Sequence to fold (224 residues):
Amino acid sequence: MEFTLLWAALTAIGFSWIGTRLWSDRLPDHPTDRLIGAAVGGLVVGRLVAMMLQGINPLVNPLDIIIVRGGVHTGAASIGAIVTYLWADKWRIADLDATAPAAVLGLAGWHAGCLWRGACLGTASGLPWAWAEPGSAVTRHPVELYAAAGLILAAWLVSRLPWRLLTRAGAALALVGLVRLLTEPMRPSLTGGPVGWYLAAVAFGGLAVWLGPRLVGHRITAPT
Fold:
């Protein structure tokens, strides 16, 4: 792993740790450790899926799994992270709601880590806060910082929602997808990014918000 990626990862961990301190109500034990484990699980799953889609056999090329810059499948990584968290937490779905704000804040930290990686800039812009790459006269949107700011706001909004099953977790998923959708047009990409997965996050997140309370018909009580 490059040191720039390592610093970005540490920034994400720091942000998630702050989130667990800001919104500590009903959190399971060792919440930051659980979030780190879920992130690692998601990266491994997303990397494996990306390798297979690129025609790389993980069994023949096991060391390629750690080459994160070689590509990580967004949708597979997200699903892998959620499943890893639930598995480690003995499938207590309600804990997703408690951890959701800190998880979203951790994602904001990852995007803010672009400052370490020198990868904040997107498409050209003449706005006053746009800036240029070293040696270039073209100023660009700091799109990763836009995403970080949007995710910080999303984390706060999620923390303000009522305690109903999957309400916070579903809203977190939907808002993360929405932030990525809104910032995607400002990202330099030949393929347009995994927009379908962001739309799916908004749709499934909204479905979870609607369906969760109907599965139980009452507010969640504090985990025992």
About this structure: Residues 31-53 form the longest helix (23 residues).
